[in-house]
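This entry is passed on directly below:
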Amino acid sequence: MAANRLDEPHPMNQEAHSHAHSIPLGAEARVERTVPFEWTIASYDSSLPPVLSTPAMIGFMEHAAATAAKPHLPTGAITVGTRIEVDHLKAIPVGGILTATAKLVAHHGRFLIFEVEARSGDTVLGRGKVSRAIVEPKSFESKAHSRKKS
């Protein structure tokens, strides 16, 4: 069975490739939210402290990156996460204000690379890079469902 490659020839991939270059380097977004209990490591394990979990912080950074790309995408396209390189440096409790920023620093074909940072006020909670790919949602979802085990 041949493996599906992310760079396989597909009309949306070709369109996404050209549109990735139309997203200006420096495109950025900032998102903010109060940390809910569900985003803490205590929500996974009650013996752990109720502080922001690494997966939640990264998810919010990915949200900032997707928000930065969204206004520049072709009609109907979305971005999906493909790679993360993030350091989680500090903790923040439930009720703390979490701000995530993302700035597009490179694109390779349909892949976008963002520098991301999470803060609470002046405190840097985490930073790194997030990569996202431009995809057509129906095709992407169909491929994902085809991998579902019965």
Summary: The chain has three helices and five strands. Residues 41 and 47 are 9 Å apart (CA to CA).
